[in-house]
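User: Reviewer 2 asked us to show a designed sequence for the structure in our supplementary figure. I'm pasting the structure tokens here. Could you produce the per-position amino acids so we can include them in the response letter?
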């Protein structure tokens, strides 16, 4: 199957700063593809280049078979875009936000109205069709922004931090919606610093930091490759941490920091936990996560980066 998005040595510079420093990846039709990393990693910059909004400095970027630099209008026609910040028209109510977007993109009036009904139902906003935007909750606004992007029936849906700041109920509601969109044949490109979100939705991800790809593949495969099934999380006073790290390293065990804790990838975590608990530390075994992959590759957590 041919890739629907291809990036080869993609670069974006702002003066001397390389916000994106030569990344390469492919997105295939019907994928949910994730760009995962902390704030400032280069995720939004990469999305801006995909959307033909921010011109690339170097490299190759092809969307739906078209070079983004040569055919920006044609690229935009196949995209539905959900920006990180809600940019709804506050002068229009819920229904009119959807209709105005459809008309702007040339959807005939009768078809636009049919899509509004369908989309309001999917977004669970039927009873709020006449509501002004400023009367909506955060979750409702986010669903409306996503609904608006789907009004044009895009081949590719590009979403930047879709559930940032939402409560768990609204977050899972939006996740279910993306799963439905993907099952219907839409390719989804998702930027997120929420590792749980990436695992829940994405069949493939790139982990990106400081404009470079650290690793890429299926989320669970990356966990297995870089960490394994289980890790041991250890908490102890800061003044004892360095000594324990040295002791564990001397035993051939990899150790990395997660905030105030030490994390040890090990298949024998139960025995080690008993040993460490007996010495005064607090240790427990848990399943390894995609967050652990980022920790292992960078030596810091995404939370430490503000995201």
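Assistant: Here is a per-position design you can include in the supplement:
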């Amino acid at each position: 199957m041919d890739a629907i998005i291809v990036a080869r040595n993609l670069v974006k510079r702002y003066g001397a700063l390389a916000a994106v420093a030569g990344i390469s990846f492919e997105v295939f039709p019907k994928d949910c593809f994730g760009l995962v990393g902390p704030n400032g990693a280069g995720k939004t910059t990469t999305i801006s280049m995909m959307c033909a909004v921010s011109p690339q400095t170097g490299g190759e970027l092809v969307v739906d078979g078209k070079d983004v630099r040569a055919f920006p209008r044609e690229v935009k026609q196949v995209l539905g875009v959900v920006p990180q910040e809600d940019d709804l028209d506050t002068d229009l109510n819920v229904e009119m936000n959807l209709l105005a977007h459809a008309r702007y993109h040339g959807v005939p009036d009768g078809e636009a109205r049919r899509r509004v009904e369908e989309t309001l139902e999917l977004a669970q906003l039927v009873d709020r069709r006449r509501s002004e935007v400023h009367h909506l909750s955060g979750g409702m606004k986010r669903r409306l922004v996503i609904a608006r992007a789907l009004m044009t029936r895009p081949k590719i849906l590009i979403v930047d931090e879709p559930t940032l700041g939402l409560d768990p109920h609204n977050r899972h509601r939006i996740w279910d919606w993306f799963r439905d969109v993907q099952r219907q044949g839409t390719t989804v490109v998702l930027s997120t610093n929420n590792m749980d979100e990436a695992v829940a939705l994405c069949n493939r991800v790139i982990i990106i930091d400081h404009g470079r790809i650290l690793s890429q593949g299926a989320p669970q495969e990356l966990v297995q490759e870089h960490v394994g099934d289980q890790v041991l999380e250890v908490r102890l006073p800061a003044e004892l941490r360095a000594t324990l790290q040295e002791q564990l390293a001397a035993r051939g065990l990899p150790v990395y920091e997660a905030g105030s804790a030490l994390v040890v990838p090990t298949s024998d975590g139960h025995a080690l936990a008993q040993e460490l608990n007996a010495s005064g530390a607090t240790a427990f075994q848990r399943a390894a996560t995609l967050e652990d992959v980022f920790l292992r590759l960078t030596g810091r957590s995404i939370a430490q980066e503000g995201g």
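For the response letter, you might also mention the following. The CA atoms of residues 21 and 270 lie 41 Å apart. The chain is about 35% helix and 25% strand.
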